[in-house]
Specification:
Blueprint lengths: L1 H7 L6 H7 L7 E2 L2 E2 L2 E3 L3 E11 L2 E6 L3 E6 L1 H9 L3 H13 L3 H13 L13 H9 L2 E3 L3 H4 L9 E4 L2 E7 L5 E8 L2 E4 L10 E3 L10 E4 L2 H11 L2 E4 L3 H10 L7 E2 L1
Parallel strand pairs: 13-14, 13-15
Antiparallel strand pairs: 1-2, 3-4, 4-5, 5-6, 7-8, 8-9, 9-10, 10-11, 12-14
Length: 256
């Protein structure tokens, strides 16, 4: 067991590949749960689904796992009829071939997965956002912001002269990129990412307390320069409403 504890963290975000290695299919996800499908352990047509939380999967089945979800380790040993010791040896071999870069990428990808069930119009694309941002240069001045009498206190990615605002979720993973232009905001993922925001961190020298939320980047920048307060920009009023309803935005926070 001690040996497995040493490699368990390496498997974060890689359980889809591990299960596929054993021929176990995981349906597509919507939010933190997958679509219903047959149980890999006891069959059926649509009695089971998977749940992903912080890079780990677990199986719920109305027939054989109704009271307690099965871990991916339990599913593999049951489906493949192998012992836990053999499974650990197989996973150790799998982990040994993972580079630090791949492990880190898998952890970031896992953090980008929703840990809540999200509205049907939610959009996000972690991989596309990361790849896009890597292709961008940085700039400290933008005409479109100057026309609103404000600038960002730090450099931002830029494309076609327009500022880009990486949107991160609760776990700090980039899931979308908002672009601000004269005609408003567009999103790289094709729509708003619920539960994600662009953050202006608290000014270290001013020690302003609390968190301010707004759906408007111009309003958020003005608030930051005025108060030094940590300010989070959601880019959509429905995003603020949803996060207020689920408790991400606290009652003591300020909504501009």
């Amino acid at each position: 067991m001690n040996e497995y504890n040493q490699i368990k963290s390496i498997l974060t975000g890689q359980w889809h590949d591990v299960l596929a290695m054993y021929g176990i299919n995981v349906p597509k996800f919507r939010g933190k749960n997958s679509a219903n499908g047959p149980c890999p352990c006891c069959g059926g047509k649509d009695r089971a689904h998977w749940r992903e939380v912080e890079g780990r999967l677990a199986l719920f089945c109305r027939s054989c796992a109704a009271d307690k979800m099965k871990s991916p380790e339990d599913v593999i040993t049951e489906v493949c009829n192998i012992g836990f010791g053999e499974l650990v040896n197989n996973l150790a071999d799998f982990a040994n071939y993972q580079t630090p870069e791949k492990i880190q990428k898998a952890k970031l990808s896992a953090a980008s997965k929703p840990n809540r069930n999200l509205p049907v119009d939610h959009k996000q694309d972690h991989d596309k956002s990361m790849s896009f941002l890597e292709s961008c240069e940085l700039s400290e001045s933008f005409k479109v912001l100057l026309r609103h009498g404000v600038q960002c206190p730090f450099a931002l990615p830029v494309k076609a002269g327009l500022p880009l605002f990486p949107m991160r979720n609760e776990l700090g993973a980039v899931v979308n990129v908002a672009c601000f232009g004269d005609k408003g905001v567009t999103f790289l993922a094709g729509g708003v990412s619920y539960g994600a925001w662009f953050e202006l961190p608290v000014h270290e020298m001013r020690n302003s307390e609390g968190i301010a939320w707004t759906d408007c980047i111009v309003k958020g920048l003005h608030q930051w320069w005025k108060t030094g307060q940590e300010t989070r920009v959601t880019f959509h009023e429905f995003n603020i409403l949803w996060m207020s309803n689920v408790g991400i935005i606290k009652k003591e926070n300020t909504i501009l």
